[in-house]
Amino acid sequence: MKTIIKIILLFSLLAPTNFANLILIVHKDFPINSISKNDLKRIYSNKMKIWSHGGSVVRVLLKRGRIHKKFCKLIKNSPSNLRRFWKKQIFTGRGLAPKSFISQKDIVEFVSSNRSAIAYVDSSTDIDSVKAIELK
Questions:
Q1: Theoretical Cys-Cys bridge with 58: which of 4, 41, 82, 117, CB 3.0 to 4.6 Å?
Q2: pLDDT tens digit string along 70-112?
Q3: How confident is the model at residue 7, as a pLDDT?
Q4: Domains in the chain, please, with CATH?
Q5: Global pTM?
Q6: Closest to 116 in 3D by CA, of 56, 31, 28
């Protein structure tokens, strides 16, 4: 019985960090408050290169981790397929590599200084310097 209680306690302590939500972020002055899943997929598959309000799309990715895997699942891709896709885009001259970071803090800092960037972070990340947008 004590073992079961310890296991339940362990899972309850781990739950908040393991199941954090993914948040899409953009620059504070970004004129859009939401984006469709389809548009998000088009952005990260290099089919949407210009924002509807003007300006080139600047894609930002985490290099790896749980949130990156969650994002890839959201756009119906795998981390390895996404990496291969972008290597092919670069090699064939069809696109520039997305900006990629190891740290979510670095992503927030980059997005806060780039008006055309779109990225994703964990809901536990401090995003006061950027704007969260809704996924439709």
A1: 117
A2: 999 999 999 999 999 999 999 999 988 899 999 999 999 999 9
A3: 55
A4: 20-135 (3.40.190.10)
A5: 0.81
A6: 56
